[in-house]
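As promised in the previous annual report, we have extended the structural survey to additional targets. Below is the entry for SCFD1 protein.
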Amino acid sequence: MLNFNVPPVKNSTGEPVWKVLIYDRFGQDIISPLLSVKELRDMGITLHLLLHSDRDAIPDVPAVYFVMPTEENIDRMCQDLRNQLYESYYLNFISAISRSKLEDIANAAIGANAVTQVAKVFDQYLNFITLEDDMFVLCNQNKELVSYRAINRPDITDTEMETIMDTIVDSLFCFFVTLGAIPIIRCSRGTAAEMVAVKLDKKLRENLRDARNSLFTEILIQCHFFSFQRPLLVLVDRNIDLATPLHHTWTYQALVHDVL
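The corresponding structure token record, generated without further manual editing, is:
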């Protein structure tokens, strides 16, 4: 993405193309654990700025955007196009952007006579935060939205619950697209975990139904192999004590061993 969505050439001694990185708070949360300022500089990022901050025009530099496709963000990006802030625009969305919002950007680009300046538009499917090689979280700027408390509030409405479930499903879907694997899903019944499992299963099936546009087919072709080693996704409710049975079996022998 930081190389204009072109794989970087190894052993390349040439100077990187200097560019500006524009992100929102979500993008900032995703990039921060992965890349230091020095690493960004090595990739040609001279400036990294928040989308909604006051930014000066730099008309001879390309800009890489990494943002969520929210109404507020789209409006600000359209404003940037109208103000002719940068030489060219590489738009990368953390989650998939809807057709209507894409049309809003297109209309703004036509209105600003900047169609040729919009170089690329990508759905990156990166709506999760990687903390370690084998650990990621879904918490972001809206961490209160997907918290344990939010799901178990006595006054929660069906609409709010649907929104929470959709947020979790979108992040999990992004993770498996990035992984390039279709999981086997297991969940505890009658809980929020089951709701997430059903929604994720439906989203995966819908994506696989259209073989020509499937995100997973493309990844597998790029990798030149079809993997039969499918990962197991276990979804459990926080009310379930998962740690204890993983530490030892539910027997008196294990209990006596722990206590004595």
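The longest strand covers residues 45-50. The chain has a mean pLDDT of 86. These points will be discussed at the next consortium meeting with the crystallography subgroup.
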